Amino acid sequence: MPDEIVHWIGETHPRTIVDGTYGGGGHTHLLLDVLPKAECSSQQEHGGVSGLSPLIIGMDRDPAVIARDDVAGGPGSDPRIELFLGSYEKSPAALEHCGRSHADGFVLDLGLSSDQLADRARGFSFTLEEAELDLRFDPESDIPAYEWLAYHSERQIADAIYQFGEERYSRRIAKMIILRAKDRSPVRTVGDLVEICRRCVPRGKNHDIHPATRTFQALRIAVNDELGILQRTLMSAADWIAPGGRVAAISFHSLEDRIVKNAFRDDERWTILTKKPLRPTEQETRDNPRSRSAKLRVAERKPDSIVNAAP
């Protein structure tokens, strides 16, 4: 939903934007057009309008993403862009590094990038069955999914698949995972887990959903602590979003959307600008079928005077 992001963030005339999920850099490059033009040198010497040059801070947990773009002549060499390796939970530290206390806009696009889905070393796509079942955004931190399965009990695995994937057949899947481990043939590859899901999840009337979809989503969320990071970040975002600044968050499943909705609703410092989540246009879903489940919610940071005056 690039046009919607540019519209909602651009309306605030932002000087500092954090793209918390940089990925392919699509939103960052579009948002460059809504930054104010840099003041002339005499204005900058006297602090300009705000004393800060226009800037977009791009955050990503994937070292491959930063290595790809943060090179001479690459997108990260644009003086209006600073790229940082790390979760968007570390946005305040990135702002501080850039000499800023607040952002005027914060963008979250919580879906997987095409590069991640195509990476054979990560196992994000269950069509690459020979790949290791890794599922980490940052392969240098934490443990891969196949080790996560080895360290957890049948009940813990079942609970995670049900809670994070909303998979009805989670207990069947967990049981088979444990049985394979007992037979000294533990789940190690994408194909190993796909085979289990095919056996455990009956084919329904809706054949569009692969039987492994919900289980892979659940393990990815568990391995990367995705929901915990999202919840903690949104709980603190009003501390480092400037009054009048906005958060625009695109979610792709109900668990993420619920966290975003509740975070905006439960903190009096936010004004909700999208009473119902915005959905992609028919044209966008035709051009990008993976966008069909996207939901965009936007909130604006209230002026401190209004928050302080609230009863």
UniProtKB/TrEMBL annotation:
Specifically methylates the N4 position of cytidine in position 1402 (C1402) of 16S rRNA. Its main location: cytoplasm. GO terms for molecular function: rRNA (cytosine-N4-)-methyltransferase activity. Residues 279-290 have a biased composition (Basic and acidic residues). The keyword S-adenosyl-L-methionine applies. Belongs to the methyltransferase superfamily. RsmH family. Its EC number is 2.1.1.199. Residues 275-311 are annotated as: Disordered. This is Ribosomal RNA small subunit methyltransferase H. One of its GO terms (cellular component) is cytoplasm. NCBIfam families: 16S rRNA (cytosine(1402)-N(4))-methyltransferase RsmH. It comes from Allorhodopirellula heiligendammensis. It comes from the Bacteria. S-adenosyl-L-methionine binds at residues 25-27, 60, 88, 109, 116. PANTHER family: 12S RRNA N4-METHYLCYTIDINE METHYLTRANSFERASE, S-ADENOSYL-METHYLTRANSFERASE MRAW. InterPro entries: RsmH, SAM-dep_MeTrfase_MraW_recog, SAM-dependent_MTases_sf. It is found in: Cytoplasm. Keywords: Cytoplasm, Methyltransferase, rRNA processing, S-adenosyl-L-methionine, Transferase. GO terms for biological process: rRNA base methylation. It catalyses: cytidine(1402) in 16S rRNA + S-adenosyl-L-methionine = N(4)-methylcytidine(1402) in 16S rRNA + S-adenosyl-L-homocysteine + H(+). SUPFAM superfamilies: Putative methyltransferase TM0872, insert domain, S-adenosyl-L-methionine-dependent methyltransferases. HAMAP family: 16SrRNA_methyltr_H.
